[in-house]
Amino acid sequence: MNNCTERIYNGLVKENPTFVLMLGMCPTLAVTTSAINGVGMGLSTTVVLVLSNMLISMLRKIIPDSVRMPAFIVVVASFVTIVQFLLEGFVPSLYASLGIYIPLIVVNCIILGRAESYASKNPVLPSIFDGIGMGLGFTVGLAAIGIVREVIGTGAIFGRQLLPLADAAAGKGGYVPVTIFILPPGAFLVLAFLVALQNKVRSNAAKKGKKVPEATGCGEGCASCGNSACGGKVFPTGNEE
Amino acid sequence: MSENKLKMSSSPHIRSKVTSANIMLYVTIALLPASAFGVWNFGVSALVMLICTTASSVLTEYIYEKLMHKKITVNDFSAVVTGLLLGLNMPASAPWWMGVLGGVFAILIVKQLFGGLGQNFMNPALGARCFLLISFTSQMTTFVYDGVTGPTPLAQLKSGETVDSMSMLLGRIPGTIGETSVIAIIIGAIFLILLGVIDLRIPGTYIVSFVIFVGIFGHFANPNIGFFDPQYITAHLCGGGLMLGAWFMATDYVTSPITKRGQLVYGALLGILTGLFRLFGGSAEGVSYAIIISNLLVPLIERVTLPKPFGKGGEK
Q1: Would residue B12 count as lying in a domain?
Q2: Would you list the domain boundaries of chain A?
Q3: Does residue A171 have a pLDDT over 60?
Q4: Is A201 an 8 Å CB contact of chain B?
Q5: Whole-model pTM?
């Protein structure tokens, strides 16, 4: 089971899809206008990711190499459809606010990336945990961006008013929301600052001599590379069996 | 010739006395008439706003460079110019903390995070103004003049009312602190042109292309206006941030093209975009957005207008 906890750590911290690999930027920037949207999107993606990783790993010896992409997409799309119906049925308000980004999970590059680089080459159990780790990493990333944007942009957190709003008409002082943070520019600003922050934390950890893998170029894949400046443009190829 | 008069050194041997600090100081001085008029026109709140934006810009620059162990460049006046321009672009009735926030945004995010003076990809003052405009739309577009909240002449013009061009020329109208008086702005601009800090290329093409655009398309935006209606064009020229933008913000060295042909393209683009936003856009004003969008296109403009070195190119 050691391998499984390693997969979760890998997805949450070492290869966090949002802050390190920079995958799935489209939903990351578009749906994180509030914390609940970020968490909802992250968890939906996690469910799809775990199930698709599981099924693709099971089918990895059956799927011919030449048609693996269409095969992956069929698998992912089936799960996305299930998740979409479930969301529409049980949390219609979240479904309405996520909108087109739910069907777009089909082409989310985290899911196809994990299928291609991990699930199609590894046994079922580690693949499931890889999906859980990556999915939770994505959820944490989206929730962090969503929380920051919601607090600054509306003064609320998970829909509850955190800071009392100013009311000019009643002459009441208080927090004046910085609306730009719940608009598209705010997504870029918050993402950039959070990535900068985590890079700073990482480089500090590296200075203190903690166990951080050294940059060895991309030959061994992003997993073994301490340099996140490439933004994980190369799909991770490390940690394969 | 005696031996000790010979000096051995590598080139350059002749240095210009012009430095960034000189130029920025001249720009600061040139902005003083507009600032003084703004304070006289809008009262103490305008002075407070100008002080807030300038002080926060300078302090942000100092603190950031101190923390990042960089060379302190507060003495080159560029942060003062940014802060002052931002202040001149704010309504006097906006709360003071908005000016402080704008100054921090201008220097920290638009200027320093991209590498400091000379590296910013858009005008810091305008970047901050647009940040504030999007965030606090109501406070940034409420103009109080003589204790009365009223529409700016541009807004009146947009809704089809007539305006008095003479008071717009003098500046006895509501608006942001520095944009109202065309005369005060022109005094500063003439000072800069005489010193050679700016030339007529960018502001000239900006204003000419804007006049042509408004002259032709003003009729389509408002059917009561004829083609090239002189009064309509004068009102558009004197109203809003056009003069301040054309003379002081479009001419920023860092964010305008360095090639001569490029400056003409840039000026024409500014005029067309400003006209487009003012006549057909949702709000009455469009100078800020026109300038920052053109700022973003400057690298492309420079690439296509790069002059050919003598002897290169031509027919093959």
Answers
A1: no
A2: 2-162+177-230
A3: yes
A4: no
A5: 0.83
